[in-house]
Amino acid sequence: MLKRGSTIGILGGGQLGRMMAVSAAQLGYRCIAYAPEGDNVVSDVCDDIFTNKWDDAAAVAAFAAQCDAVTWEFENVPVATAASIPEDRIFPHPRALETAQDRLNEKRFVEGLGGRPAAYARVDSRADLEAAIDTLGAPGILKTRRDGYDGKGQWRIGSDRDAQGLNLPDMPLIYEAFVEFEAEFSVILVRGQDGEIRFWDSTRNSHDHGILATSSLPAGEAIAAQVDRARELARQVADALRYVGVLTLEFFATRDGPVFNEMAPRVHNSGHWTIEGAATSQFENHIRAVAGLPLGSTATVARSVTMTNIIGSDILETEQWLGQPDTHLHDYGKAEVREGRKMGHVTKLER
Fold it and tell me: What is the predicted pLDDT for the residue at 153?
């Protein structure tokens, strides 16, 4: 268990790290961050930040030497960077990054635990793509196996003709058959160092152009009927990875049960509602797990909750929310306002 005043290191400089650092401070910890040069909003709330490249081994070692524990705030931290930090100080274990960073490996891993992803095929060439479409049909989604988020690195394939006209990127890809679903939802859990697991209520998630728009509770009957099965898979994933911290799995609710979409080995956008809407937020419980503290209650404390992302220039019109009761604005402090960029979020509760 980390003592009061200990230092927690955060790999990454974005808003997830920023909200983690706020929770860490409330629990009596210092935070320092490590991220390459950029709009690192985590620096607003950290004691220090190392702005070095991910492959700067000496800088990473110097950073780790100042930390009593280290975690990450996004899943594209290079595995080698995380793995260079002593194993007894890095949470979760870098094996979680290694699993989640490659969509093909992630799906195979989940299948091995009995989970059901959308039908998929590996694509390394145009011939592979044509074969995948012949086998799995169209429409479907072509994705990069690595990187890509918020709809980036994805191409909707409506027919053979779409595939023929696509300029394939020179990188490993995966083709996924289209899933007919009633709703999308997240399962977010926290696992402590002692193996205890707690779940937050699952939200109904709505997307706009591949970017999460809203997460809301109650999630509705279609999701409620499938949450237990989805949670069981999430529990198996967390235990298999010997995970420590917050883990998110996203699902489609279909007529045949939950279909696994993807996992994020970190706190998640669809869990931002927990800051005001749950007894203990995902950020606080992640820090509790990393620090070896007892986990807090994940109970929902409102009758209904809606979290809405603030995208692009909408951040310039936040006054519309400030006068509303039980409505909570979070501005991430990003300097550059651009289309499609997550600039903040607002959470509205009904008690």
Answer: 83
Torsion of CA 171, 177, 180, 182, to 10 degrees: -40
Please report, for the domain that includes residue 24, its CATH number.
3.40.50.20
Q: Is the pLDDT of residue 327 over 90?
A: yes
Query: In this structure, are residues 310 and 345 in contact, taking their beta carbons and an 8 Å threshold?
Result: yes
pLDDT digits (tens, 9 = 90+) for 188-221: 999 999 999 999 999 999 999 889 999 999 999 9
Q: What range defines the domain where residue 20 resides?
A: 7-90
Q: How many domains does the chain have?
A: 3
Strand partners, 155: 142
- For residue 160, name the pLDDT band (cuts at 50, 70, 90): confident
If we measure between CA atoms, which residue out of 23, 8, 14 comes closest to residue 282?
Answer: 23
Instruction: Let me know: does 330 contact 344? Beta carbons within 8 Å.
Output: yes
CB 46 within 8 A of CB 24: no
Query: Domain ends where: 159, 177, 195?
Result: 177
The Cα-based distances of 240 to 93, 112, 245, 248 in angstroms read: 11, 11, 14, 14
Residue 114: inside a domain: no
What amino acid occupies position 163?
A
Which CATH number goes with the domain that contains 150?
3.30.1490.20
- Counting Cα atoms < 13 Å in the Cβ hemisphere of 158 gives 2
Residue 297 CA to residue 177 CA, distance in Å, equals: 38
- What distance in Å separates the CA atoms of residue 36 and residue 39, rounded to the nearest whole number? 9
User: Where on the phi/psi map is residue 182: left (φ > 0), alpha (ψ -120 to 50), or beta?
Assistant: alpha
Q: Is the pLDDT of residue 47 over 90?
A: yes
In a domain, 326, yes or no: yes
The residue among 330, 215, 349, 335 whose CA lies nearest residue 278 is 349
Rounded average pLDDT over 277-284: 99
Residues 257 and 335 in one domain: yes
Q: Decide if 100 is inside a domain.
A: no
Beta strand spans in 86-223 (E): 120-123, 140-144, 154-157, 173-177, 183-191, 197-199, 204-208, 211-217
| 143 in Cβ contact with 156 (< 8 Å) | no
Within-domain flag for 112: no
Single residue among 162, 177, 192 that ends a domain in this structure: 177
**Which residue's structure tokens are 């999630």?**
219
| Amino acid identity at 76 | N
